[in-house]
Amino acid sequence: MRIGIVCYPTYGGSGVVATELGKALAQRGYQVHFITYAVPWRLDAFHDNIFFHEVELPNYPLFEFQLYSLALAGKLVDVARYERLDILHVHYAIPHAVSGYLAQRMLLEHHGIFLPVITTLHGTDITLVGLEPSFHPVVRFSLEHSDAITAVSSFLAEKTRHQFRIQRPIEVIPNFVDTRTFAPHPNPELRQQFAPNGEFILMHVSNFRSVKRAPDTVRVLAEVRSLLPVKLILVGDGPERGETERLARHLGVDEHVRCLGKQPTTPELLSLADIFLLPSQSESFGLAALEAMSCGVPVIATTAGGIPELVRHGETGFLAEIGDIERMGRYCIELLSNPKKLQSFREGARQRALEFDTPLIVPLYEQLYQRVLEQARVML
Ligand code: GMT
After folding, report:
1. CB 3.0–4.6 Å: which of 4, 110, 143, 342 could bond 88 by disulfide?
2. Measured in angstroms, how far is the CA atom of residue 282 from the centroid of ligand 1?
3. Mean pLDDT to the nearest integer, 338-361
4. pTM (two decimals)
């Protein structure tokens, strides 16, 4: 089967899921074609069966804003025809589902080719940006015309039904992790660099958009530091990084915060953490937390969105209300000051992550592709 995958190539969960899915499918013998404006950042090496097609953006003085959705649709037609794609899988509805629909119509009317389009919803395409009045009708229309829709959590599927009045089935296929790669990798020398006096380590990985509430991680650090020696490692970059760093200075904990910027979230890096913090305002699943859990790191997070579908309160981590810094701090102290409990949560986190292992989840996408292709054959 020849599968086209459209995603954002930048630092972010939807692009990571799309890329890891493409890599896993290629390993299973499918031919995978990524179509986007840059090489996805997790597509870090040459992979057999994987091809990359860059969407070029023509520049013209009249276009004050770049017309990416149109350029993508045009490129999809080209790739679908010349690479003989069987199916197109778009990740993140805006604008990918719309470009996919447009390409599908052009392929059918001009070339007599039917290309089924599957849309996977990831989060803010439904919970935030998609709700903007200028996008809402477009997202709704493109979902109604997708040949199948998947969402990464039950929370997100329900939100989509409710906010977009979608009656059609939405299949829940959760995020996944390669638990062989993302496994505990203790590295005492590296740990020594971040915590030279044996301090505990809290970690947060995100794109620092406001929904992530990254500054809350610094507030939690300040709370915990009043009782325990602890450091905070921040990985990633984005709009609220500056504010997070300023808050650390304001609270007088800046010497205990290390901002690493955009980094590959390697198992070695994640394994440094004693606790992973995810204080999000909104989170449809929490892929970063799953990768940390797979490395045996318990998660202290909010109850936002789909997080409770991943993190088991009192077993693999703890959940608190959004913005409840005091409680998150208390939970950190409870775990860090009780080595037996911390160890049992570490094991719990790893066990839970094993339920989202790549070989368990990727077949759900393969079965969906087969079903959609079968449907298309019946229709034609
Ligand atoms: O913020 C988004 O919605 C975009 C997306 C991304 O590219 O970062 O993140 C979402 O997709 C991930 C992969 O499915 C989920 O694990 C994240 O929870 C989700 N982020 C949010 O819902 C804020």
Report:
1. 4
2. 9
3. 98
4. 0.96
